[in-house]
Amino acid sequence: MRFGYEICGALFCAAVFLGSGQVGAQEIDGTRFRAPEEGSWYHPVEPDSWVHIGGDRAEIETVLSRIAAAGADRELPDDPAYQGEGSWLAEWRTAGEQAMREGEVFAKNGKSADAVARYRAAVTYFLRASSPHTDDPLQRAALDLAHESYGALAENHELRIREIDVPFEESSFKAWLHLPATNEPAPAVVVSMGSDVAKEELLPYFEKQLSIRGIAMLSLDLPGMGESAAWRFSPDLDKLHVAAVEHLKTMPEIDARNLFVQGASFGGHPVARAWIARPELDLAGVVYMCGPIHSSLMAPPQAYAHFPEYNMDGVRARFGLEPEAGFEDISAIARTLSLKQQGLYDVTKVETPIFAILTNDDPVAPLSDVDELLSRGTQVKRVVYDTPGHCPERDSREAMAASWIQDNLR
Questions:
Q1: 382: helix, coil or strand?
Q2: Whole-prediction pTM value?
Q3: Are 129 and 162 in contact (CB under 8 A)?
């Protein structure tokens, strides 16, 4: 059975332009936020991405077939309002529980590599069940299982992965620290992803790109989800990143002079803010990818009606809004996040190196916005994929990011 979700591979072979030339401002158009190959269900259907994280393609096909069959009479087969047997949440959770049980058997028999493979699959499926990671109790429970599976994966992985508590305000939040195979203090990058992407999705980046370069990775959730759910989006959205950087400076395993922050999609916003507003962090560098920084955040309320409902539901949770909150409520909070509106552009120069990775027609990160931000920098590299859509493909952008980090070690 086919669902119309095959990835065409255009991003893999997209031409890349280097430079800092100005490009005309794009209109904010939420209808372009989801690529056609992601399907027309409530949830984006991205099997290649899920295989990238650790899912099994045949198992993914089977789960999607079950959901399609069970939901044949519903307008949306994966309607999030239905959570019983045959629903998106129930089917992915069942697949996750099966993979987790298999991982436990392998672990007990000393087959660590096989255990890691099944735990990775469990993480992938539980993350699908919990998406878009709202405050819904069943989604929260599935996300907790993804977290639990990742902990089991960490115990069996050949590289060092452990959960740490990062002090913040009068409390703390949890993050995953990934360490390369070295006895020396390692450079480290603090990484976050989009508003609907949990920190447990970042392992391939560490394995494929960072660990082989001797670079550590601290992955954290954005406010409003996962282990950062106690906080919500606010004008100082880089607050958890700042706390993470400061904590890494105290750790003997980490080279405090070589700390970087990196973020993609909404995770790019706090990275951009840290770059322009936090010179005291003395970062070795910043990697910014396709994050909203001004125009899309200042869009009129009606503009959000064109974005996928899935994404808007996730945004409501991150913003701390009720599920039924209107676009006016979303817009009111979004406007407070604009770095330009916050007056942060009133600086003469920013000396921290920055690497921006973008597409030529991103509905939330117009090139004109990014160019205005980057014009404040003295050490700027900018790569633009000659393809429309939100954010370049992960593997290629992460390879460039890791190489740039390595080149900018002090």
A1: strand
A2: 0.89
A3: no
